[in-house]
Amino acid sequence: MSHASPQRLSASLIIARIFFVLLCLALAGLMVFHQQIPDVLGLGLVVDNLAPWAGLGIPALFLIALVLRGRSSFIGLLVPVVVWAVLFGSSFIPHTQRAPETALEVATQNVHESAGVQAARELADSGAQVITLQEIGEGQEDQISAELAKSHPYKYMVSTVGVWSAYPLKNAQPLDLGLGWNRALRVDVSTDHGDVRLYAVHAASARPTGHDERDAMLASLANYVQSDDSAKIVAAGDFNATSTDRHFAPVAQALDEAQYSEWGLAMTWPRSPFPVLGIDHVMLRGVESANLQRAEIGDSDHYALQATIDLGS
Q1: Is the domain of 109 the same as that of 172?
Q2: pLDDT attached to residue 313
Q3: N or C: which end of the chain has fewer CB within 10 A?
Q4: Cβ 31 vs Cβ 51: under 8 Å
Q5: From residue 148, how far is each of 4, 154, 163, 202 by CA, in Å?
Q6: CATH no. for residue 112?
Q7: Which residues cross the membrane (predicted)?
Q8: In 176-252, beta strands by DSSP E
Q9: What is the distance between the alpha carbons of residues 310 and 313, in angstroms, rounded to a whole number?
Q10: For 35-70, what is each residue's pLDDT tens digit?
């Protein structure tokens, strides 16, 4: 009795599957080693900040795997899936919200010059006790202060970066962070549960054609924080860098990022047509994040962030 011989794979299908596996490995390698890609013509900047979006390649690869079939195709596909899950999965899943007994509500937004007064009003109404705004337009400082006179009577402003607080402020200091002119500040917020050192930051812009000033500011901020002996530190603002940017790494090593409490990544810019980059941050040391929300405030091109910070940690 004769038996049919197993169907042999064509050479083209074997080559296609090999190429597919290599493509899967390349995508995984891009996600793992994106910070080692040379920053030639801004390529490193682009790849760093879009690294989480590399996961969009996985559904496309899955469709190709369905066509190619074969065990090797799906095993190869598992590699970028696992890599994306390890690198970005925990940030994608909502972090548990809680209501600590000793909390400080901190909000931050780049108001894009014209939205300062409306942003201040809406953030105050949302319960923020400390509000830091960046890119405040000319003449808006007095308007914002008048708007917040009753709820947030304490303020400190440097250039286009300002802080309004329900708690007294002290030890205020302007910071240029190597930029050559002040675009950041630090101040102590005197809460009912002790002082909190606040850094309010608006880093220089980052473009593929140039981001040296931003890089210098981030490195300088990291140095300031590392040498700061304050027990409780909060740094908030527009860092013009995502958490995957290689030049944000020194800041991330010195401070912990407040964890987003919703599904997905805390993308804050641009608001239209949809956010692509999470360049606004609330960073912590000596305290813990109890909640972080993204809010569509005013008519700025940035979303606002509001963090509930556990001062008892």
Answers
A1: yes
A2: 60
A3: N
A4: yes
A5: 84, 9, 11, 22
A6: 3.60.10.10
A7: 12-30, 50-68, 75-93
A8: 184-191, 194-202, 233-238
A9: 6
A10: 999 999 899 999 999 999 999 999 999 999 999 998
Tell me, yes or no, whether 283 and 135 share the same domain: yes
Place of tokens 């407040």: 258
Q: What is the largest CA-CA distance in the chain?
A: 97
Task: Output the six-digit token pair for 277.
Answer: 């980059």
Q: What is the span of the domain harbouring residue 62? A: 11-92
Boundary-marking domain end, from 60, 92, 124:
92
Q: Are 76 and 24 in contact (CB under 8 A)?
A: yes
End-to-end CA, the chain:
78
Residues of the chain with pLDDT under 50: 1-2, 4-6
Q: To 5 degrees, how large is the angle CA 242–CA 29–CA 79?
A: 110
Are residues 79 and 166 part of one domain?
A: no
At 109, which amino acid appears?
Q
HSE value, Cβ hemisphere, 13 Å, CA-based, for 311:
15
The set of residues, in sequence order, having a beta carbon less than 8 Å from that of 130 and lying 6+ positions away, is 104, 105, 106, 107, 163, 164, 165, 166, 167, 189, 198
Structure token pair of residue 211: 């981001």
Residues 215/248, Cβ–Cβ less than 8 Å: no
3-state secondary structure of 70: coil
In a domain, 6, yes or no: no
> How many CA within 13 A on the CB side of residue 221?
36
Residue 4 lies in a domain: no
- Residue type (1 letter), 181: W
| Count: domains in the chain | 2
Give residue-wise pLDDT tens across range 76-120. Answer: 999 999 999 999 999 999 998 888 889 999 999 999 988 899 999
SS3 216: helix
Whether 294 is in a domain gets the answer yes
**Can you tell me the distance from the alpha carbon of 297 to that of 38, in angstroms, rounded to the nearest whole number?**
37
